[in-house]
Amino acid sequence: MSSPTLELELPDGTRLTVPEASTPLDAARQIGPGLAKAALAGRLDDAWVDLRAPLRSGGKLRLITARDDEAGDVIRHSAEHVMADAVKRLWPGTQIDVGRSGRDGKFQYDFDIPVRLGRDDLPRIEAEMQRIIGEDLPFERQVVSHAEALSEFEKQGEVLKVSRIGDLAADAEITLFRHGSFVDVCRGPHVQSTRQIGAFKLIDISGSYWRGDESNPMLQRIYGVAFGGKKQLKAYEARIEEALKRDHRRLGAELGLFMFHEWSPGSPFFLPNGQKLYNALVGYMRDRHEEQGFQEVTAPQVFSADLFKVSGHYENFHQDMFMIPEPDGGEIALKPMNCPGHCLIFRSTKRSYRELPLRFNEYSRLHRYERSGTLHGLTRVRSFVQDDAHIFCEPGQVPDELDAFMAMMTETYKALGLDGIQVAVATRPDQFIGEPGDWDRAEQELYEAVERAGYPCGTNPGEGAFYAPKIECNFKDVLDRVWTLGTAQIDMGAPGRFGLEYVGRDGADHQPAMLHRAVLGSLERFIAIYLEHTGGDLPLWLSPVQAVILPISERHEAVAARTCQALREAGLRVEADDRSETLNYRVRSAEMLKVPFIVVVGDAEAENGSVTVRRRHSREQRTLALKEFVETMQEEVRTRGVS
Domains of the chain (ranges plus CATH)? Predict the structure, then answer.
């Protein structure tokens, strides 16, 4: 009798037959020794598999090497362990908590170290990491029981790690990875050997509360980056240098857009120019929502905690909410999201299928408790607004609503000049509400919507919200950072929890489907991302000041004022700069403020009713009739051209 086998399909379409329980490394060896030596990890049907893990099924297999874009994920993951090993070697008695890699090229690890470290200690840790890499230590994968994992770390005196293992189910199968004497709980994948970590750099150190709880001890968190080679590291360092120039906090101050104050941490103040930008974005999204039949509503800012107990947020999101005790012993909460309020609006009256789809959108302020150590400019705030919307519809109407979302997303990003959008479906997490079968059907509907819109669709396993799978629209900015902007979700819990019903075509009561959708997400966070992507050079339709009028001398101030008034009456945002400075100084000032059009008026312009115009970043000057210039600007604003 022949032994059982698995059928694998390679990227070029070649079929490979391997014995059952073979590993990706076995498959690589069968293909050739060069690939087996260079391989870092595998992707089976687009899911990560460690080279040493037995394959449990056949499928499409890709073997990842340092040449592949995904290689950085595996290299960073392995560099985390090498960093933790180095810290433990340098400071015996150190306890390890958890490591983590992100899509931004960084990795991190939290430690309980006997001494307080600073940035000056990072080169010492880097040197020890380099020694470990030079030892060419193989990563070894081991599957153990819950009891065996506890025993392993209890013997080492790793109190933090023992606590983390205690969170896992008693019957859990746990994976350990070792290199040399270092071991940690980890799902992998990891490179074959420490030598495959081509280049790395430690970049920062900070404090972090254990388990994110400010009542727990403060740990020390070390951040780093790692790549397949020095070329990628140098490119990263160049991006960081550019990022410092584009930092939205710096641009916000230079352009007079927003500010913060210690008396309201994590809550931005939008200054006059920042509010103009904010209003332009909201106005654009309001128009798009109105075109698609949305009705704008406003729900209260403060609710009884009972609302969030019904929605499930109290149980699953409580630590991220601002809860306020009431004198009578109850609790109220500042609203962290709009969906529960929209459910109350839906059920406030008897609904019929004739009203559906019923679409609500809202631009009210939301509040979430972000720990002080995580606050970062506009990207991580406690007070924000979303271009948030919810749709209540018949189940059969869900595909059309998802198609409308994809169309709005595509149109909006085009207007903003955001190219290369990548779309993925985030699937059911470990902790979820609802029935698995309903989740499976909803996820399939999301995949099909992305496919109909013509986008290749990836999968982010287990990254859905506790109440919904979601479409994620990811954007890579000029600094190669990936940001999730738009999302669309099919809610698995709220319609049932809130008892939402409508009278169907058969005269009976039915439960509606409920969709959550946002195209920009948090407006604060989007403004930060967009400022850094554009370097503050905003398209004309979004610019707080679209043109600045410069009189050549004091005697031209009257014509400058008339020109300014004409542009304002045409609906354009303009200012006159008649300071007693030289013309060249005022031109440079307008350039520094990134004003799209610089308009100069003097004797000739006053006599002819014209303006002399120069566009930012252009050397060309044009003299136009004032009416022609107004119409040119209006058309660019109307069509939302991106210069």
Answer: 5-64 (3.10.20.30), 71-239 (3.30.980.10), 253-534 (3.30.930.10), 547-639 (3.40.50.800)
